What does this fold into?
Amino acid sequence: MGKIRVGFGFDVHQLKQGHPFILGGVDLAHHSGAFGHSDADVLLHAICDAILGAANLRDIGYHFSNNDDKWKGISSLILLQHVMKLLREKGWQIGNIDAMVCLEEPKINPHIPAMKANIANAAGISEEDISIKATTNEKLGFIGRQEGVVAYAVCLIERIV
It folds into this structure.
């Protein structure tokens, strides 16, 4: 068996009225959206951190500083492409990605196929290797009050032989 590693990613963003809500590269219709330096796509940020962590490549903030205007407003799909380039340069490939988004609204189930297609395209992997799930916070805390959105991700990487 070849060498494998697992990485974990987490991201959180504040929700603000009038901002776009980008999740998995899909623009969701909602009265509030995630606020951040890039497009604030918490799902892709958690996935990027999981990949970077598995490959021992530090974290998303190290590679894409929120103090660098180069990354201001950028699509997180571009960040994922860059992360995948770093991963391959170190001799690794994705085995699978499993992600969980925690929010009250909007409901993302109808958008999961498009999100998986976006991620697969940006990462150069099969949609079959990507799992995206969602849950609510049962109206508890900042997520329950719809003040923020959270995403968690794990990924398995395998050494390229």
Notes: The CA atoms of residues 58 and 150 lie 20 Å apart. The chain has a mean pLDDT of 96. The two ends are 11 Å apart (CA to CA). The chain has five helices and seven strands.
